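Expect sequence, tokenised fold; for instance:
***
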Amino acid sequence: MSAIRPIVLIARHTWTEVILSRVFTIFGLLAAALVGASIFLTNFHFGSAEIRFINDLGQGVISLFGSILVVTLGAQLFFREIEQRTVLPILARPVTRSQFLLGKFVGTLAPIIIFTLGMLILVSLLLWWRSQSLAEDPSINRASLGDLLRETWTAGGFQILKFLVLGSMVFAVASFANSFSYTVSMGFALFFAAHLVHLAIDFYQAGEGVFFAALSFFLAYCLPDFRIFNEPPVDPEYWKAILYSFVYTGVYLSLAVGFFHRREL
């Protein structure tokens, strides 16, 4: 328990920093406003298509704003400790660099997970409310609404898994980077690259040249494929996707710990 206690304390302090951050507040309110704006669709009466649109809009907002929060807050809170030199008195105590980094990671991701759950609750309420308003529409029924709610929460769960992987990638970059701007730039670059991994896999399998085949192999297997989280698999394959997320998160956090141990502060 003594090894876990420093991680918990650092995570709790980081949690407070995230909650009080203007970035978290602004993007959280903006995300909620965008999803809430779907109530204006009531004037158009799209029927079942409207219900589907509310769900797709909610998932898109969660993915976009959640990813922005992971990259920006992860880099900001890490480099704040480095630039303000507050990391030195922390590490002077019986706290290892591994515990410090893991505490920052947990403290950064936990509020973003709460953000995701809050958005899922908001989307679910909007879906239920709009389905009640369209109760007389033959294309809307309780069974389809129940299936859609299960799909909504399943997709939201996979978004959380994606945020864990993305967060570990951001901390891996931050552990050796020299600036906040470089970490944010690389974080978003990795985010977009992870959505295009399937192209690298296709290119590697085509075998067009040794250099490009080697580059494609690196991109295909050293970067996670975020399509897995944007397009959740069917029920029997859930555990494979969860394991996929945990493996990549563990690998990138291990790299982050290794880089941070070798970093001069």
Observations:
- The longest helix spans residues 97-133.
- Residues 5-161 form one domain.
